[in-house]
Each structure stands twice: as structure tokens, then as C-alpha cells.
Design goal:
- With about 850 residues, the protein is α/β, with parallel strands linked by helices.
- Among the domains are: about 230 residues, P-loop containing nucleotide triphosphate hydrolases (Rossmann fold, 3-Layer(aba) Sandwich); about 325 residues, ABC transporter involved in vitamin B12 uptake, BtuC (Orthogonal Bundle), CATH 1.10.3470.
- Helix content is about 50%, strand content about 15%.
- The chain is built from 32 helices and 26 strands.
- α21 packs antiparallel against α29 and α27 packs across α29.
- The two termini are about 40 Å apart.
- Keywords: ATP-binding, Cell membrane, Membrane, Nucleotide-binding, Repeat, Transmembrane, Transmembrane helix, Transport.
- It is a multi-pass membrane protein.
- It is found in: Cell membrane.
């Protein structure tokens, strides 16, 4: 036991007893007992699928156990929730970072870390910068997390976990994507946390890290504990035998004898692209080429270019044949470092993911032959020892290591001309890692060039025949044969990158400019819309001087108020990744309901009752929509289409034809002016600003966007998903209520056929405002301007004497142009590491 453990008190922080968990009848954990002590680093080892991540999911509240108990601070729980875990100061750094890509770095911190941990003399921003600097994170607080590399996302996760001063810190494969400099910072942080009395659970596949950090080690195999010991009391061979259940042969396959006469199979000459410049190297048949260097110096960008995924200049020849980007993209097998974002279709099965790149092999004419496809997939999965209940299991249900094997299976099944692997063994256990090394060596021997980038210098030493070391996007050293040593590779990288960055530094490693952040932010569409509205207004005014007359301006604002309120509600729902098709019929239904109460001769109490009933109908509609989606598992389109039809039918049931004239006093109140502005427009504009403030500066607004950005990550950081989504649909319906009140004054009568068109118009306004239809990002101010532009276009066609056909043409053209502009602008956020 090391000195740190001897000093720190060994009190029990958490005790897991008899933990069991089944997935679809398959046991992931069986009667697991684990004691986690304060001041200790407790390593948790095991093959992929052994149950490590599931067990720590139980400990952190992300997974509900079927059996067993959890004891923390002397209190026993049958299960924990993420919120309880946070209150108990249990922090976890997931193998796949629980971050929301559409939120900024600062917003990701705010949604996951309680405000009391973000207090400092310089304010919350100063506290965030301090916590990020402690782990070596250098990106700007306002950068979108979607633009970060996988390594930077891990550092962000680590910073969030350490910020709360955790009593229990769980690290799930934390060093897998990190370079040597970041690993050193991580180790220092872990040692400091343990010295403060924090209990640390460290999941890893690297025995060297266990020796360097851990005081105690526990091994899981097939969901059960196979052994637990002080690290000093057990050998590496004994650990490996416990992990794999057998003696393991040498990790790395033997390298072939160097043959000066061997055929040159791969030649890369003067290859340049975004993040790297003038890269040249060659490889003979049977050689594996490694790419080394401090993370973020162009390695991943180079590999993407070799896979044809990024534009590049230079010459790539394979077996004497020149390959351009298009041909490389078609003929390469690519293993990305971020398998979740680039490597897998998480909603598809294991079989579908594995066979996707090789479907041409299994087709006869236009038809896919399932028998040979199933046979080939089964063979590949067996060769890679992928642990899955069935090839039809969703790939998202597999452990991280098994997901990586599926990515490799797909690359191999495509029969590539070149295999390009970025961190191929990231999150893969020792047994599977040896198998992957063997397969890569066999592929190379069969005449397929293999290029591997890895942050693990020991891996490159054992696997590769030739290694290029990159710094600032350029090759600074080439090692071959016996010259490839861990010490030499690290020394070359550190010596080359120990000074200021050069002009070729990868974009992802440098601070983004203020202009770039604005262009990739939510307010760029607001500026575009404002300019379009000004230009359109100026053009119409030049053709008709009555355009800015008081009557016309008032008319535009009143029309904008009705659509604006309804579009604001649609924005709330779209931010959580949903859609509400029922907003139009709901507005019409509320108008019909109001036409029974808000008429001449009715008392003030009756009118108030009518408004309350309209609001209650809206709230009820929102609850029904949210409940159907979250609990009945309807899709948002199906759920809201059902209420769309029901509301339209109810409107005609209440009034088969227009009737119930609205009292003039009610219409006058709603159309009352505050100075030159209609009261309804003023209230709508105020509501927009309030909603925007909540969205940006309140935790409820951040949670709304977090759910839409990545529901699973939001759940892991403690966001209550179901209540948030239901609240969004209720909020949408409440906004529709205000829109219906304005519409009621405009129509002056209960017409059951009115309101339906607002569904499409509201979606159009939201899209024009820049809110993503996929959820996670948007702005209420953009929606307000989007609604204003729609009304302005309709109004302009009248002043320009155009037919109604032009109204639809202009709306469609605006949507297409906006979509193209926004997608191109936001495309700038992509970076190469």
C-alpha cells in the first residue's frame, strides 16, 4: 500500500451489497459486493461487458439495480437517482462524456454543477475558468461543445466532476482519449482528490495505470466479482488471469522481418489539409504505420484525409494506383476516435451497423440477400468476440468496447484498400485488444496498408513497424524498426511541442475568435432576419409610400402578435427535440370556447371564467401531448397529430358554423394601443424577452435545451427528463392561449375552421428564427423576427399587387434560403483535431 493510503483514513464511503441487474433476461451483474473507501484509489478491472460500467451506473444513480442495496453515509438505499447521487457528492466521469453538444462549455457546466460550486471572487465565469485550467482545458467558455474533440470533452467532464469536491469520484476509462500531458494532469488531480479523503473508483484496461495510481483492485468477469486485493499483493499475471479467465499470450503479435526488397504498398507524398501540412511517408507490404504526437497536433485530421473524409492536396498511392479523396472515401475502412458521433448509428442493430459498408456484397440486382449478409456478419462478430445477445440487438445496448469492435467489423467487411484507425483500442479490454492487434497485423500481411493513430506510445511501439511523430500539423520525426520505443516517441513529441504553437496549429487546438463564436451561435440568424426585414421594408416602401402608414404598421403588429405567441410555444417544444402539430387547431378550439363566454351581455365574472376555461383547455392539451410522448411512447408527430384531429373535431362539434360574436369591449381591450404599439404586440414582445432570459440565464432554460441536445447525457447530469418534456408541451399550449386571445379579437366570432393554418406558419417562423428542428438550440428572439417576417411578406404582396401564389412562393423560398445559410454558417463549428 502506498504512502498516500497509509495517511488517508480508510472509512467506508459507499458499500454495494448483492447488486444484480438483468437486461432482457441477460445478467449484467450477479450478486456483486463492493466496498469503496475514502482516501483510496480503487481500480475496477474486467473485460468489456464484464459489468464495470453497469455497476458504476448503479453507484452513480444512472442505473436502477434489480436486487441489492447501496449504503452511503450510514444510510441504505434500494437505488439512487442522479439527483440523489449529486446531493451525496457522488461524481462520475463517463466513458462516453455526458455533455450536450448544442450547449456552450459554460452552459454545460451550469446545467450539471450546482450554483454554490461556481462562486468565486471574480464570479461564476472566473470559477469555471479556474476549474477548467486545473485539468488543462484551454478552449473558450462560449465555444460549442459539439466543436470539441473527444479528448477535450473528457477534460470538461473531469472538470465538472472535480468542481463539486466529491466524496466519491468515479472515473470510467478517463485516459482512453488523452495525450501524455493530459494524462499527467489527470493523475495529479486523482492523487490530490484521494489525499483529501475522496474515494476514487478508477475503471481502466491499462495495468500500468493500476500500478501507478491504485491502492486496491477488484476484478469483474461475467457480472461477478472474481477477486479483490491490495494492488501491492497481486501480480500482473494474476490480474490478467482473473480478467480473462485464462492465461493470456503476448499482447502484441510478432513483427515481420524487415525486407529491403519488399514491395512498397503505400506512398503518401506532400499531403496537406486543414490541420496538417506536407506529410510524407511510405509503407511496404506487411508494415503497419503509426501516427504519434501530443493529442491535437493534426493526427486525426491526417487520418480523416487518408480516409477521404476531408479535402486535401498531395499524392496518395496504394499498390501503385493513385487515390483521390472520392476514391479513398469509397475504398477505405475508417475507425473514428469518437465512435458514438461518427462510427455508429445508435438506433440501428449490431447487424445493420456491421454490414452497412458492405451491402454491395450481398445484393442481387436491387434486392438484398439476407442469408449471406447474416452469415458474414455472424462470422465477423465471432472473430472479434463481440458480446451481444443477438445480431439484432441495438448497438447502443452494447458496452463501449463491444461497440468499438462493431466499428472494426464494419471496416473489415467492406474489404478496404486501406485501413485507417484512430485510437482503435480506446475503451477495449486487454483480451480484445490483443485480438485487434492480431487482426490489424493479419490485414497488413494480406496486403492492405494499415495506418494507426494512438495516444498510447507503448501501443505504437509494440504494434507498428514505422511511426511518424507529428507536431503542429507537421512530421517532426520518423522512427522505424528498433528505433520505435515509447521513450523515443514521447521525447520527440514533447521536445517538438514544448514551445509556442506555429502557424499550422490545428484549428481545434486554438482559441476560437469572437466572430466565429457569433457565427456558430444562436443569434446569427437574428441578425440575418433583421437585415432581411429592413431590406424588404425598404424595397416595398420604394414602391408604395403608404407602406409605413399608421394603419398598416398597426395591422402588421397585431397579426404578428397572434402568430408570435403561437410560434413562441412551438419554439419551447422544438427546443426539447419535439414538435407540436396541434397548436393551430388548439388556437381555433380556444376561440370557439371563448365565443360562448366573451360575448355582449355576459358579466365580467363569466368572461373571466371563459378565459380560465380556455387556459385550462390549453394546459390539459399540453399534459395529454407530453404524457402520450413520454409514457405511452408515442412519437411527437403521432401524439400531436392525434390531438390535432381531436381538437379540430371538437371545434366543429361545439360550433358547426361561425357564431358567437365577441363583445366589442373585449376586442377593444385586446387591440388597445400603448403609444403607437398595440397592447397585444407589447405583451408578446415582453413575453419573448422573458422567455429568452429564462432560456439563457435560468437552470430551467438550460435543462430544456439540454434535453433537446442529448437526452441521455441530460439524464446522467440529473435533469428530470419526463417532467421537463411535459412542462415544455404545457408551456407551448399556454403560449397558444395568449395567441388565441389575440386571434379572438381579430376574428370577432367563434369560427371552427380558423386557426389550423397557424401550425405550419408557427413551424415556419421557428425555422426562420434559427431554432433547430432536432432540438437543443434556438432563440425566442429569432422566432419573434421569423413571425414578423412571415407577416411582413404577406403584407408586402398586397402592397406590391401580387397574387396569393407569391405569398407561398416567398415563404418557401425564405425557408430554403434560411436553412442553407444556417447550415453553412454552423458548419464552421466543425474542427479537425
Amino acid at each position: 500500500m502506498n504512502e498516500q493510503t497509509m495517511i488517508a483514513p480508510a472509512s467506508t464511503t459507499m458499500s454495494l451489497a448483492g447488486i444484480g441487474k438483468n437486461y432482457d433476461g441477460v445478467a449484467a451483474l450477479t450478486g456483486v459486493d463492493l466496498e469503496i473507501r475514502g482516501g483510496e484509489v480503487h481500480a475496477l478491472l474486467g473485460e468489456n461487458g464484464a459489468g464495470k460500467s453497469t455497476l458504476m451506473g448503479v453507484a452513480s444513480g444512472a442505473v436502477a439495480p434489480d436486487t441489492g442495496t447501496i449504503t452511503v453515509g450510514g444510510q441504505t438505499y434500494p437505488r439512487l437517482t442522479p439527483v440523489q447521487a449529486t446531493e451525496l457528492k457522488i461524481a462520475i466521469v463517463h466513458q462516453h462524456p455526458a455533455v450536450m453538444p448544442d450547449l456552450t462549455v459554460a452552459e454545460n457546466i451550469r446545467v450539471a454543477v450546482a450554483p454554490q460550486y461556481l462562486s468565486a471572487d471574480g464570479g461564476a465565469e472566473a470559477a469555471m475558468r479556474t476549474m477548467l485550467e486545473a485539468v488543462g482545458f484551454t478552449r473558450h467558455l462560449e465555444d460549442r461543445v459539439g466543436s470539441l474533440t473527444i479528448a477535450q470533452k473528457h477534460l470538461l467532464e473531469l472538470a465538472k466532476a472535480l468542481a463539486v469536491g466529491p466524496a466519491l469520484l468515479i472515473l470510467d476509462e478517463p485516459t482512453a482519449p488523452l495525450g501524455q500531458d493530459s494524462v499527467a494532469l489527470l493523475f495529479d488531480a486523482v492523487r490530490a482528490a484521494a489525499a483529501r479523503g475522496t474515494a476514487v473508483v478508477y475503471i481502466t484496461h491499462r495495468l500500468a495505470e493500476v500500478r501507478e495510481l491504485a491502492d486496491r483492485v477488484t476484478v469483474l468477469r461475467d457480472g461477478s466479482v472474481r477477486g479483490s486485493s491490495l494492488t501491492s499483493d497481486i501480480s500482473d499475471d494474476e490480474l490478467l488471469a482473473l480478467i480473462v479467465g485464462r492465461k493470456l499470450a503476448s499482447t502484441f503479435p510478432a513483427k515481420p522481418e524487415r525486407d529491403p526488397q519488399a514491395e512498397q504498398l503505400l506512398s503518401v507524398q506532400g499531403l496537406s489539409g486543414q490541420g496538417f501540412d506536407d506529410v510524407s511517408f511510405t509503407a511496404s507490404r506487411g508494415e503497419i504505420v503509426g501516427v504519434s504526437g501530443i493529442v491535437g497536433n493534426g493526427q486525426s485530421a491526417l487520418l480523416r484525409a487518408l480516409a477521404g473524409l476531408e479535402p486535401s492536396d498531395g499524392i496518395v498511392q496504394i499498390a501503385g494506383e493513385t487515390f483521390g479523396a472520392k476514391k479513398l472515401r469509397r475504398r477505405s475502412g475508417y475507425l473514428p476516435a469518437d465512435r458514438h458521433r461518427e462510427g455508429l448509428m445508435m438506433s440501428m442493430s449490431v447487424r445493420e451497423n456491421a454490414a452497412l459498408s458492405a451491402l454491395g456484397r450481398f445484393t442481387r440486382g436491387p434486392l438484398l440477400r439476407s442469408a449471406p449478409e447474416n452469415e458474414a456478419v455472424a462470422h465477423e462478430l465471432s472473430a472479434l468476440a463481440v458480446k451481444t445477445g443477438s445480431p439484432e440487438t441495438l448497438v447502443s445496448a452494447l458496452s463501449g468496447g463491444n461497440q468499438q469492435k462493431v466499428v472494426l467489423a464494419r471496416a473489415l467487411m467492406s474489404q478496404p484498400a486501406i485501413l485507417v484507425a484512430d485510437e482503435p483500442t480506446q475503451g477495449v479490454d486487454v483480451g480484445a485488444r490483443a485480438e485487434i492487434y492480431r487482426i490489424l497485423r493479419q490485414i497488413s500481411a494480406d496486403g492492405v496498408p494499415v495506418v494507426v493513430a494512438s495516444s498510447d506510445a507503448k501501443e505504437l511501439e509494440g504494434l507498428c513497424d514505422r511511426v511518424i511523430v507529428m507536431s503542429r500539423g507537421s512530421v517532426v520525426q520518423t522512427c522505424a524498426g528498433d528505433d520505435i520505443t515509447e521513450e523515443a516517441l514521447i521525447h520527440s513529441a514533447v521536445r517538438a511541442t514544448g514551445h509556442s504553437r506555429g502557424a499550422n496549429a490545428p484549428a481545434s487546438a486554438t482559441a476560437s475568435s469572437r466572430v466565429r463564436r457569433f457565427l456558430t451561435g444562436d443569434y446569427a440568424p437574428v441578425l440575418v432576419l433583421a437585415l432581411v426585414m429592413l431590406l424588404l421594408g425598404a424595397y416595398v416602401l420604394s414602391k408604395n409610400s403608404r407602406y409605413l402608414g399608421q394603419f398598416n404598421v398597426t395591422s402588421i403588429m397585431t397579426s404578428c402578435a397572434a402568430l408570435g405567441f403561437i410560434a413562441l410555444g412551438q419554439t419551447i417544444v422544438l427546443l426539447v427535440g419535439g414538435i407540436d402539430l396541434s397548436v393551430g387547431p388548439l388556437a381555433g378550439f380556444m376561440v370557439v370556447v371563448g365565443s360562448f363566454f366573451l360575448t355582449d351581455g355576459k358579466s365580467g365574472i363569466v368572461m373571466v371564467l371563459g378565459l380560465a376555461l380556455m387556459l385550462a383547455c390549453g394546459v390539459g392539451n399540453g399534459v395529454v401531448n407530453g404524457t402520450l410522448i413520454r409514457y405511452a411512447k408515442f412519437t411527437p408527430v403521432a401524439a400531436t397529430l392525434a390531438t390535432y384531429i381531436a381538437l379540430q373535431g371538437l371545434s366543429f362539434l361545439l360550433r358547426s358554423s361561425p357564431g358567437g360574436n365577441i363583445a366589442g369591449s373585449v376586442s377593444n381591450l385586446i387591440t388597445h394601443k400603448v403609444g403607437p404599439f398595440p397592447l397585444s404586440f407589447v405583451v408578446m414582445a415582453a413575453a419573448t424577452l422573458v422567455l429568452e432570459g429564462i432560456l439563457r440565464f435560468r437552470r430551467s432554460g438550460l435543462r430544456l435545451r439540454a434535453v433537446g441536445s442529448d437526452e441521455d447525457s441530460a439524464r446522467k447530469v440529473g435533469v428530470a427528463i419526463n417532467p421537463t418534456v411535459i412542462a415544455a408541451y404545457v408551456g407551448s399550449s399556454v403560449m397558444v392561449f395568449f395567441g388565441a386571445v389575440v386571434l379572438l379579437a381579430q376574428l370577432g366570432i367563434g369560427d371552427p375552421s380558423q386557426g389550423v393554418s397557424y401550425t405550419l406558419s408557427s413551424i415556419t417562423a421557428v425555422v426562420l428564427g434559427g431554432t433547430s428542428l432536432l432540438g437543443g438550440r434556438g432563440t425566442f428572439i429569432g422566432t419573434l423576427l421569423g413571425a414578423g417576417l412571415i407577416v411582413q411578406v404577406l403584407n408586402a404582396t398586397v402592397f406590391l399587387n401580387l397574387t396569393q401564389t407569391w405569398q407561398y412562393f416567398f415563404q418557401g423560398a425564405l425557408i430554403v434560403v434560411a436553412a442553407v445559410i444556417y447550415s453553412q454558417v454552423r458548419g464552421f463549428r466543425r474542427t479537425t483535431a
